[in-house]
Structures are given as C-alpha cells and as structure tokens.
Amino acid sequence: MKSRTKVVVIGGGIAGCSTLYHLTQEGWTDVVLVERNELTSGTTWHSAAQVTNFGANQTMVGLKTHSINLYKELANDPEYPINYHHGDGGIRLANTEAQMQGYRHFASMARGMDVHFEVIGAQECARRHPLISTENLIGGLWDPLDGDIDPAQLCQALARRARKAGAEVYRNTPVVGLTQHKDDTWTVHTEHGDIDCDIVVNACGYRVNEVGAMMGVHHPVAAMEHQYFLTEEIPAIKEAGHRMPLIRCPISDYYCRQEKNGLLVGFYEQDCKTWGMDGIDPNFVNALCPDDLDRVTDVLEGAFARMPALMEVGIHTVVNGPITYTIDGAPLVGPIPGKRNAFCIIGLRAGLGEGGGHGWLLAQQIVHGEACYDTWVLDPRRFTGHANVELTGLKAIEDYQNEFRFHFPHEHRPAGRPAKTTPLTPVLAAEGAEFAVVNGWERVDFIKPASDFDHALSFSFDEVFDVVASEVKAVQENVGLCEVNGFNRFEITGEDRHAFLNRMFCGTVTRRNGRVGLGYLLNHHGMVKGEATLANLPASDRGPDRVWYGSAAASEYHDMDWLSSHVHDDEDVNIRSLTNEQTILVLAGPNARDVLAACARGDWSNDAFPWLCVRECFVGIAPATVMRVSFSGELAYEIHVPNASLYAAYLALRKAGEAFGLRLFGARAVDSMRMEKGFLHWKADLLTEFNPFETGLDRFVKFEKNDFVGKDALVDRHAKGPNRKLVTLRVDCEHAPAHSGASLMENGRVVGTITSGDWGHRVGMNLAYAFVLPEFAKEGATMELDLCGDRVNVHVIAPSPYDPDFVRIRS
Ligand SMILES: Cc1cc2nc3c(=O)[nH]c(=O)nc-3n(C[C@H](O)[C@H](O)[C@H](O)COP(=O)(O)OP(=O)(O)OC[C@H]3O[C@@H](n4cnc5c(N)ncnc54)[C@H](O)[C@@H]3O)c2cc1C
C-alpha cells in the first residue's frame, strides 16, 4: 500500500469507483481507493440499477447523459464488456393534467441539454408497454434512453480503467480514522496502515456518517429500507419479441423493469422505514434487511391494478436493502462545508444511473475547482445548521414517500417544518402569512386574503396571482413591510478588510464609512461565483470599524468557505457570521420614509440619507442598522435588527405604519418586482457557467484594478467574446410564467434557456430572463419559448422595464 498519494477516495461502490476513474480522466493518476470489504459490498451490489436520463434540472440531466454515454462506451469495450440494456425506453406515468404539464416542462428543459423526451397519451403508453392498463391513466413521459446495467460489472470496469491509468485500489482495508494537519493535508488511518494525502473523498454510502464522524462532521444523509421483488417468467414478455420499457408510477408508487423474462418490481410505500439511524452493525456487509412485503401491500394493489400480469406470476426473490436520502432528495457532491481538501459524493438514491455523472462532476471540482455545469443543486453547502440527523430522517421519509412525485413551482412540503424561525414567525402566521422554505427558514411567501384561502399546485398562474398583484400595488403606491429572514450576513473586521475584499470582488469596493455597494465574486475561471452587498460601518458602541457582507440566504456556508479560504496568513481579516443573529425588515414604497421617520430618530431626508447609505439607529427601542437599498425598485430601507429586538422593531414599524395603511408583503411580490428591475437571483440567474460579461454585469467589472480573483481567466474569456448573453424577455402568454430551464427555440434549434420568469404587475407584462446565443441578444429579437409544450413568442426588451432610470429608488 502506498504511504503517500494525492487523493484517497474512501468507499468502493459506484460513487467511489466513478470518482476514482474520473480523477484519472482529469489527469490525476496518483490516486487511490480504499474499501473496507470488497468493491460494491454496500448498496451497489443489490441495486435494481435502472439508468434514466430524467432529471428535474439541467445539471441533473447533463450528468445523467454523461453516465449513459460512459456506460455505453464501457459496455462496448471489447477487453471488458459489461451488460447494459440501454434504449429499452421508460415511461413515467401520469393521472392528472398538472403532472402532464410538468412533464411537458421537463421535456422543454431537457431539450436544452440535447435530450429528447416525449409526452405521450394513455393509449400510446399501453402500446409501448403492452402489460399496463390505461385505467385512470392520462399519459406519461417517455425517456427513450432508459435502461438498466449490471452494477458490479460497472464498478469493476471503472476500477479496471482507473488502475490501468495508474490509480490503486485497496480492498478489505477499512478506514478507521482521519487526521487533518496544519497545512490542510490529511492522514487516512486504515487497518493496514496510514496513507498521507492532499485530499480525501467520502464515498461511503450508508456508512457516510461513520467516516464523517472521523473528521468531526455530520452529513445530512439518512438511509431508508427499500424493497423490490423479482418475478418468475411472464409468458407475454417472452412472446413480445422486444424488451419491455421501464415504468415509474407516481400514482401507485412503484417501478418496474424487465429482468430476464420476468419483471423486477420496486416499491415506495407510505409505511416506510428509516434504517441505521442509531448505528450500523459493522458486520452488515454484502447484506440485506429482512423481507417485509406486508409493508408494501398498499402499493402492491396499485401495481397489480396497473399491471394485471403481476397477479398471475410467482415471486422468486425479494431484495430489501438500505438506500440513502438527503433533505431535498438530491445527493451531496462537492466540498464538505467547513473543511479544506475534503469532498464527498454521498446521499445517492439513484446512484447507478447518476453515479457516472456525479463522479465526473466531482473529479472536475477536485482538479479544477469547478465543474462544467453549475453544481449548486448538488453542493453539500446548500444546507446549513438546521440539517441535523432528525430533520434529515423526516425529510428522507417524505422524499421516499413521494419518490416519483416531482415538486411543483412554489411547492414546499411539510415534513421537518418549521426548522428555522424568527420571533416574528408566529406573529406573521397570525397575520395570515403563507410561508415558503428558504434554506430551512420559514419565509413569508404572501399574506393570505382569507384564512381558508387555498391554491393549486401548478405550472400556470394560480389563485396567488391576484394576491401578489395587490401586495405589489400597496408597495408601489403606498408602503409595505416584509420580513427577509435568513439573509446571509458576515461581519468582516481587521485592518486589511478592504484590501482583501478588493481582491475578492471583480469591481470597485466602496471603502467609505456609511456607504453600501453591490459587487460580484468570480471563481478562478473568471465565472460568476457570488454576489454580495458591502456596507461600511464606522466604529461605534456596537463594534469596531467593519464591513457587513450580505448575500443570498442559502449562501452562508458556500460564501464562508470561499472567503475564508482566500484570506492570506499575513492578512488582518476576521470573518464572523451574523446570519442567525439578525433579521431584515424591508420597508418599501413611496411612504416608506415617512413611516421610518415616525419611529426612528434622525434626519431621513433624501439629502441626509440618500440611496446606498447605511446608518445605525433605533427603530422604536430596537437597535437597528438601516441601509437605503431596494430589491423592489421603490424607495426602500433594509432594517437589520438583532433577533432579540425584532418584535420590538416590528411593533414600532406597524404602529408608525398605521397612519399610512402599511401592508405586509411577501417573497412572491418581491420576486415579481425584482424581475421588473433587472435584478438577478444567485443560482437562478447568477451561475458559474457564465462570466460577468455574459451575465450583463459589465459595469461591475474593473479591469483597471491591479488584481482580483479570476481576472486573468476573465481577460481571456472577454477577448474571445460571449458564448451566451443574459437578456430580459417579454413573454407573449397570459396564463403561465416561463419556468427556469425551459428552452427557447428558433426554427427547431435551441437558442437559449430561461433562468427566471414571473409576471411584472407594475408593467403588466409576463417577464423572463434567459441566457441566449449572442446573435439573439439584441433588443427586438424574437424567439419561441416551449412553455410546458405550448409554443409562445418571446421578445428581447431593454433590462429594467420598470423605472429604467432608477428615479423611484433614488427619490
Ligand atoms: C433495493 C435498491 C434498489 C435500487 N435501485 C436503483 C436503481 O434502479 N437505479 C439507481 O440508479 N439506483 C438504485 N438504487 C440506489 C443505488 O444502488 C445507490 O444509490 C448506490 O448503489 C449507492 O452507491 P454508493 O457508492 O454511494 O454506496 P455503496 O454502494 O454503499 O458504497 C459505499 C462503499 O463504502 C464502503 N465503506 C464504508 N465505510 C468504509 C470505511 N470506513 N472504509 C472503507 N470503505 C468503507 C462500503 O463498504 C461500500 O462498499 C437502489 C438501491 C436499493 C437499496
């Protein structure tokens, strides 16, 4: 065994084998994999191993396409061919129009990744899969590339290729400890000796938290028991003369694929069970949980009704094994929060289909610092402090129970709520607030007009449309108050804070006390990494000279990792998170100044406190830090208040607002208004796949600055010209917004992808942002949007259609 290597991958299931192989593909060959038993002896060996191309976003579709292409290549390798049935096709069934609308959206989104799904009717489903009944069926989504693979052969093939490239694999070598050194390198302690390395990767499947504990972290991953059975031969399958397509059924929560001349049928029962929450028997190796078909009776009935042939055939094997889930159903692939040189590829619930792609994206991140797609949907840092073992267990159960039921826009499922609240949460609930979940925080989405107000889950505009319209009107014409909790905020102190920030941001960094500036952070490839406001606060009884760094609610761990890893040893810079200590109350609208002045001493006139200023004060008796910034495009104040004083500040503002008829508003109204102003959302419109020029942030880049992170790469990219450009669109459709990921077409060719869409109530327009090919980025250009299967025209318009001269914000 080597005593030193560059990367140690721990775990030899599909996740570890794929990572090892892809590291060698990226050019790192001094890498090893250590496995406590034999390869695939965790979950991988008994997987049903279906390989679909379906994903809820473009990153997932792209990585699955990579898996499929790689697996095809491996299957055809004459030296070591493996069994892979690709192209059997698969159908996701639907029994509601809303599901069909969702499938049409996913087909539109996948087309942008050159993946071609088909939405088909019930009769066509039955024609393609002769064993299913069309009872209570509307149709389904056809994935032509669906199939299944031999899991053990796949892992062996990947390990074999990695070995050929120089990697080493140590089997029967349990990792028993991890030590990180001062220089951020690691020693991996195994039962057979130590291996020093630069980087460790946790790919330990359901044992993820045993190895996590060795480095002092808990990963939000829980295992569920999951069962399938194999039937005896079914004559109709034998006679069909072709392989049966796969079925995934959200109506009865089961899946099914051909296995020899019978079927493999798997279940997602409501009466499901977590597994290993209190520790895992060290001898659970190549093992299964006891069969428990009684648990799946409810689902079985539905499966029998859909596929009557199942009632007439015997079962010859039952497989019940642990399968891992995370809080939102997507795996955790990327850097481990708060650790240096440590990565994970865990929480894979469809690891055979996805593993090829996840290993590919992880290897790119390890070697190049970033992958070809924006990987935020997989980033382990997307969950923060709330992601504990109990919450993970509850969300895993909920996700398992809804395995094939995709999330609708604005859908926030109930398990594990509320996780993060402020003192105002119950107060706002009593005011009729409907909440959405943002990184665990309960954030007001809108205020219900009546206690029994209800709305449909839909890809179209629904009953909430008019509610948002009236909240926007109140903000536009009068004054509104909105709680923005969980907003990420760091306090940055130290003599070198501005020099440090100047290096991190690609544009001008405001240094003047009392001033606020907006800026962008790039990665080392010159692509957009982050967005933050910087507010300069002078020394006071609340603290020393400091900068408040504010960014999106989910970015706390991500931004902290990025900033802290760039502080030089000799720099006087300290970064402290205030995210969980402070909450923002946004006061917005033409009467906002009068309301603030009525409850906070001081001169709030435009001359004394213009746009982009910051000041400490009291709102009523609550200590507050007020910034004159606006995401709505109206005169607005962000009032930052410590949580202990939040209710006091709220009461003061509500009282002062009484004379003006102040109304509460929520995030849905904010989203509509920001679209009208050309303001962008991190990880919706601000992605690592595009540089700031492509994103329309030219004015935030200052090449004349000495140096900043990503500058050299950006200079090169800028010289080459854009691949895509972000544009604002008017959508010729009244009944539905453009959804993120939807494709823009011209003569049947995909020419762009939507990033955000919403109705602009003040301008009376359906608006969207999209990245389009540069030749379509001109004002007036027209394209066709595939909006859930409908073809509608969209037109490029000037950014910021509402108050383009920013008069209202500055007034
Ligand atoms: C019944 C069932 C059906 C499934 N069907 C499908 C399907 O149809 N399609 C699909 O895509 N997915 C399916 N899955 C899920 C899929 O099998 C998993 O996502 C995948 O196998 C997970 O692979 P992994 O590498 O993450 O974990 P594992 O396969 O569990 O590998 C982890 C490895 O880490 C090793 N390890 C743990 N601790 C240590 C240590 N301390 N030192 C060294 N090594 C260690 C383990 O021994 C193990 O080999 C199914 C799962 C189940 C249970």
What can be said about this structure in brief?
With 811 residues, the chain is of the alpha+beta class. The chain is 25% helix and 28% strand. Flavin-adenine dinucleotide binds at residues 10-16, 34-37, 41-44, 46-50, 174-175, 203-207, 210-211, 226, 228, 266, 319, 321, 323, 348-353.
3D architecture notes:
This protein is of the alpha+beta class and 811 residues long. The protein has 19 helices and 39 strands. It is globular and about 85 Å long. Bound molecules: flavin-adenine dinucleotide. Flavin-adenine dinucleotide is lined by residues 10-16, 34-37, 41-44, 46-50, 174-175, 203-207, 210-211, 226, 228, 266, 319, 321, 323, 348-353.
Mind sketching the topology for me?
Layout: E1 4-10, H1 14-25, E2 31-34, E3 50-51, H2 58-75, E4 84-86, E5 90-94, H3 97-111, E6 118-121, H4 122-128, E7 139-143, E8 147-149, H5 151-165, E9 168-170, E10 175-180, E11 186-190, E12 193-202, H6 208-214, E13 222-231, H7 235-240, E14 246-249, E15 254-259, E16 262-267, E17 274-275, H8 297-306, E18 315-325, E19 332-335, E20 342-346, H9 351-368, H10 389-401, H11 425-430, E21 433-438, E22 441-447, H12 464-477, E23 480-484, E24 488-493, H13 497-504, E25 516-522, E26 528-537, E27 546-551, H14 556-564, E28 574-577, E29 582-588, H15 592-599, E30 614-619, E31 622-627, E32 636-642, H16 646-658, E33 663-664, H17 667-677, H18 711-720, E34 725-731, E35 743-746, E36 749-760, E37 765-772, E38 782-787, E39 790-797, H19 807-810
Parallel strand pairs: 1-2, 1-12, 2-9, 5-14, 12-20, 23-33
Antiparallel strand pairs: 3-8, 4-8, 5-7, 6-7, 10-11, 11-12, 13-16, 13-17, 13-18, 14-15, 15-16, 19-20, 21-22, 23-29, 24-27, 24-28, 25-26, 26-27, 29-32, 30-31, 31-32, 34-37, 34-39, 35-36, 35-38, 36-37, 38-39
Helix pairs in contact: 1-5, 1-9, 2-9, 12-17, 15-16
